[in-house]
Specification:
The complex is a heterodimer of chains A (119) and B (114). Chain A has strands at residues 4-6, 10-13, 19-25, 31-38, 42-51, 54-57, 65-70, 73-78, 87-94, 109-110, 114-118. With 119 residues, chain A is mainly β. In chain A, strands 2, 4, 5, 6, 9, 10 and 11 form a 7-stranded mixed β-sheet that branches. In chain A, strand 5 and strand 6 form a beta hairpin. Chain B has a single domain (3-113), classed as Sandwich (Immunoglobulin-like), CATH 2.60.40.10. Classes of the chains: A mainly beta (119), B mainly beta (114). The interface between A and B is medium-sized, with 31 and 24 residues.
């Protein structure tokens, strides 16, 4: 079975602190995603990576950065947290290569989520 | 514009009742994929079904069934004889072919009462 593991389930931080959320998948998937989930807003894409060292901004990248130094690992960095970043953060991976003319039908495999509270 | 609407924010049913979760989507793409995911209290979204835009056949999997109608841009999900373990948040999602972009609905919280 595919496993997507997120490093922290619950975090409490103070405004201005740095947060590093790590995600590891064990099925050699090319694509990895970071979403945030908020009540009434569903899932919103923060960043996407389709290969090592490659990244693309999603819908709400402001205040976030990402790192993908190894294929299995995709990290989300909040350099200086603010209270409006209190949320559930979900990592996902997908097994199909992206590219022009290449169909991507792969479903997303999610981690259990990291609930961040910023005080 | 591409959009997924799940108008039902929360539904409560009594065990053994049937329940339908609605999903309406908007897209101009002719080739796309539709998904349903279940998010139990543990937090991890679990894939339930994928349907591509050229396959309008309904699907049944045990107590779960899905009704895809392109004419009304809907992809509804029915649980027959609901059980307490079905209590979760359910998300519908749309993904145009050839892109990485998944557009999620806001989710429907289903509570099945014993």
């Amino acid at each position: 079975d595919v496993k997507v593991t997120q490093s922290s389930r619950y975090l409490v931080k103070r405004t201005g602190e740095k947060v590093f959320l790590e995600c590891v998948q064990d099925m050699d998937h090319e694509n990895m995603f970071w979403y945030r989930q908020d009540p009434g807003l569903g899932l919103r894409l923060i960043y996407f990576s389709y290969d090592v060292k490659m990244k693309e901004k999603g819908d709400i990248p402001e205040g976030y950065s990402v790192s993908r130094e190894k294929k299995e690992r995709f990290s989300l960095i909040l350099e200086s947290t603010s209270t409006n970043q209190t949320s559930m953060y979900l990592c996902a991976s997908s097994p199909t290569k992206q590219g022009v003319g290449v169909q991507n039908t792969g479903e997303l495999f999610f981690g259990e989520g990291s609930r961040l509270t910023v005080l | 514009a591409q959009k997924v609407t799940q108008a039902q924010t929360e539904i409560s049913v009594v065990e053994k009742e049937d329940v339908t979760l609605d999903c309406v989507y908007e897209t101009r793409d002719t080739t796309y994929y539709l998904f349903w995911y279940k998010q139990p209290p543990s937090g991890e979204l679990v894939f339930l079904i994928r349907r591509n835009s050229f396959d309008e056949q309904n699907e049944i999997s045990g107590r779960y069934s899905w009704n895809f109608q392109k004419s009304t841009s809907s992809f509804n999900f029915t649980i027959t004889a609901s059980q307490v373990v079905d209590s979760a948040v359910y998300f519908c999602a749309l993904k145009p072919s050839g892109t990485y972009k998944y557009i999620f609905g806001t989710g429907t919280r289903l509570k099945v009462l014993a």
